[in-house]
Amino acid sequence: MFKEKLDKKLLVGLAISALCLLLLFRKIDFGKMAAAFAGMDYRYLAPAIILTFVSYYFRALRWKFLLEPIKKTRLSNLFPSTLIGYMANNLLPARLGELVRAYVLGRKEGIDTSAVFASLVVDRLCDGFTVLLVLVATFFTIRLPAGKEGMQQGLVTGGYVTFILYLGVLLFLALLRKRTDWTLALVTRLLAPFSAKASEKAASLLGSFISGVRMPAGTAGMAATAATSFLIWGAAIWPIDLLLRAFGVELPLTASMFIMVFLVFAVMVPASPGFVGTYHLACVTALSAFDIVGERALSIAIVIHALGFLPVIPAGLFCLWRDKLSLKQIGENNESGART
Q: Do 139 and 259 contact (CB within 8 A), yes or no?
């Protein structure tokens, strides 16, 4: 049954990716694209790739802090597991790399896979909050070219709305943590008029979620988690600025933040493994706000996507080979574990 649902999601994702690629390439002059690539300054690639791996390292470091309430883990296990997980995310559908990442670290550290996976849920929440802050900062500080005043005002309005939503989510999670029963009862009452079954299911899922969530203990743990979150996204945004410069595009850093926000939303859309098409379309759309369009925009999008997705694949496969594991073996072990 699960396999059937997965196959359907994969087919939908492939269809969406194909549609995005059709929209992107239907009016492209490949000669102009080749000229854009020929004019690229490839000296920017090396520092951009290094920064991408620095971002993965900071992810492993934050993961260490998130796992502190369960066990003191080693970075020598966390970093390779992170690379393996992101490699799997790029090769497998439905973000199955998260399960791979949890399994590999659980095997290395002797921790139950479900406990490791719960830490990854918190990991994603940290990403969500950090991206929301980046989004707010971008909307309030970015300056678009002349003639786009309407879009500029829309971004400021979006900044206010996002900030309010951000505060609302923080308040809800704080209540869910401190007054769990009261908050779950409130959720049930609010959703009951729409569907009693859905309200009960939502309350059950939220209850299971908050009971499995373990935040880093103490002020130092929380501060370290927050600091590494900003370092992760700083190291992920900087390469975008470098690659823009590689194509002769000099924009303020807020432009790279703006592009990153679009890319984050793009990976939420169902797509083929590697987010081919959706990622490129989001990047081209963001670039169009700065009057960068056509072959130049698509060339930049292709390089940004390749930088974010290709280098981690051989690195992850090497770590997997070194641990004498395979994606097939991990999948079989996960399935057998789910049945027991």
A: no
Phi, then psi, of 45 in degrees rounded to 5:
-65, -45
Answer with the residue of higher pLDDT: 278 or 212.
Answer: 278
Asked if 114 contacts 337 with a C-beta cutoff of 8 angstroms, the reply is: no
- Give the residue from 222, 244, 248 showing the smallest Cα distance to 301: 244
Joined together, the tokens standing for residue 27 give 């009016």
**Terminal C-alpha separation, the chain:** 17
- pLDDT (tens digit, 9 = 90+) per residue, 128-144? 889 888 988 888 888 88
Q: Are 187 and 206 in contact (CB under 8 A)?
A: yes
- Among 242, 276, 280, smallest CA distance to 263 is for 280
List the structure tokens of 158.
Answer: 């979006």
- Domain segments of the chain as ranges: 11-332
Six token digits for residue 327: 């994606």
Q: What angle do CA 332, 89, 130 make, to 5 degrees?
A: 130
Count CB-CB contacts under 10 A for residue 27: 8
HEC profile for 223-250? HHHHHHHHHHHHHHHHHHHHHHHHCCCC
Altogether, the residues listed in the chain come to a count of: 340
d(CA 93, CA 91): 7
pLDDT at 1: 36
Whole-number Å distance between alpha carbons of 198 and 336: 30
